[in-house]
């Protein structure tokens, strides 16, 4: 039986971004500034890794304070009641040179299965003798599946906000001794 190796997310070298259509003609990019995660693997190639991740809803940043306040409000994420968004993997499988990550995503009080693409950037040592592994996780979710149903319509009848949210998550994990 192989020994499990634990890797902890390095927030200094990681970022969580999302993109959503605004007025259907342009894209707004936002990020979450505070998050944590870990993965546990029994093999060197990460196949079958167990991944958990959570982020702080109050750390949302779209470069626009009023919009951020609206996103934290009860009309959207309701950060006061549901301060965390979490993910727990159910599978991490090889897909060519990369991986497919499937798991349960919880936003507010709604949990749904999602599958994300994972590009493995590699493993390297840093200046301090730590072993790091890098990944880019991408995918798309429909915000309405998670109870984020607020919709605005302009006077001219344009939908203010798209339903699909693109996720772009670049993470670096540090191998634990």
Automatic annotation (TrEMBL):
Q: Name one Pfam family in it.
A: YceI
Lipid/polyisoprenoid-binding YceI-like domain location? 6-174
What SUPFAM superfamilies does this protein map onto?
YceI-like
Looking up Gene3D superfamilies in the UniProt record yields: Lipid/polyisoprenoid-binding, YceI-like
Record's InterPro entries? Lipid/polyisoprenoid-bd_YceI (IPR007372), TTHA0802/YceI-like_sf (IPR036761)
Task: Give the superkingdom in one word.
Answer: Bacteria
Mind telling me which SMART domains this protein's record contains?
Answer: YceI
* Name the UniProt record assigns to this protein: YceI family protein
Species in which this protein is naturally found: Mucilaginibacter pankratovii
